[in-house]
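User
New here, help please:
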Amino acid sequence: MLIDVGVTGGEFAVRLPGQPRAVHSYEDSHDDTGSNPSSQRWIGDIIEARFSRRAGLQGLVGAAGLLSIAGEQSRRVETTTSLTFEEVPRKSDQGIRVAPGYRAQVLLRWGDKVLPDAPPFDPYRQTAAAQAKQFGYNCDFVAYMPLPFGSQNGGHGLLCVNHEYTSTHLMFPRTGLGALTEQEQVNIELAAHGHSVVEIKWVGGVDGRWDVVYGGYNRRITPLDTEIRLSGPAAGHPRLRTRADPTGTRVIGTLNNCGGGITPWGTLLIAEENFHQYFSGNPAGTAEAQNYKRYGFRDAPTCRDWCTYHERFTIEQEPHEPNRFGWAVEYDPYDPESIPVKRTALGRFKREAATTAVNEDGRVVVYSGDDEQFEYVYKFVSERPYDPADRSANRDLLDEGTLYVAKFEDDGTMRWLPLVFGQS
């Protein structure tokens, strides 16, 4: 079956032979519509109220302030900065502009080789098997991990990059040479999601360049075929069990990875964001109806059709599968054979970022936000302290601790409220 993909403005059209043209825009995925039923004031209301009050107070003292500075010449305050490069001219175009004395280098593009045996990228002869060995699509998180582990080497390390989503209308030829069946297209998109680890090295001295090294560290993590372990308090729960995984402890892949973070012991945390957009079906007829309504699932076509060829993306067929996404995923970039882990103690939401800090008492704190509007900011505090002398002792540090949500008060202060099951 051939698929005809056409582009119209900000929309893409998908037409199967013998079927009328259907048009979907990216807004159909409801990424940022908002699904929070709370009637409490959100942070925007609080900020607006405080600025309005401040403006009123400033108006009362404004006249006196003007009189006190009458006759004085205004002075420009000189500031110091550690940034020594020239400002880049303000311009809007499609070029890459850097300050004088600096260079920009294209290091990796969609389809470039990640694994040593990856074939050269050919947009007219794409396959899922090839894409699973090539650099994925749409990146917005980059981490540099120096080699060897524990060093401060700025010229040799691992580049760890996310692949958040795919743009169907840009990836595939419309018709003729290179046209794919819809199933082939879906599998390629699955393989283009996830994460890449690529060894890179600076060569050539001051005027040199970065090169990709096709060594033993390079790997791809994809929702097509990468096994990921579930750990922490939710692992094994009946609502995480599926026909493919009756234990509720193993899941294939990670979806919609957005901003992440680096742990003090040198692993990566990658965040699963708008996972709801990948699932089709009517959640109202399942036991998870209330749960999925809260996460913004709707009985409406999504901008993807993965469910046609992978039933785990059909809610009626696998009502628990969406529960296996929305977590923080930890993996070790220094061990390409290690199994990534979804740390359920850090909470489940449309996660943006996973920034870590070490408390004065040695415990580790992970800060994250829900990317959807009208949602919340969270922090997780580990139960045990971080052990800087023994990396292996921190392996499961994020499986035990307390999750908190931020409450912003009208006076501008903020409190952290613990989210403890059965108490909150």
Notes: Residues 1-28, 60-76 have pLDDT under 50 and may be disordered. Residues 118-419 form one domain.
